Amino acid sequence: MELKFLIVDDSGTMRRIVFNSLRNLGYNSYVEAADGKEALAKLAADNSINFVITDWNMPVLSGLELTKAIRADQKTAALPILMVTTRGIKEDIIEALQARVNNYVVKPFTQQVLGEKIDQILATER
Length: 126
Known about the structure:
Layout: E1 4-8, H1 12-24, E2 29-33, H2 36-45, E3 51-54, H3 63-72, E4 81-85, H4 90-98, E5 103-106, H5 111-125
Parallel strand pairs: 1-2, 1-3, 3-4, 4-5
Helix pairs in contact: 2-3
């Protein structure tokens, strides 16, 4: 199955870093959104998106709110979600996991860590 990623981050630079890491890992299909509201619109318009990588701290709709909205919608509830954020304290990680993100990466991260987290999520999805 070809993965199509939705990369959600209010920083264009960070979206490029994630995209370049994905491309180097062999993933070439992606769309971008600058906040959670834009991400929900992209998910509604594109049924081929099958993996979400989101930041937490964003204007309009945060990554945590985005995760809750994805999980609440029957059409998107099963999408794998990887949270990539600067929020590294235990309480934040627990809150994200309670919102049902599949995995969590603290910035800054390496391409290897991103790949390992994606592989872990995919292994549990099979």
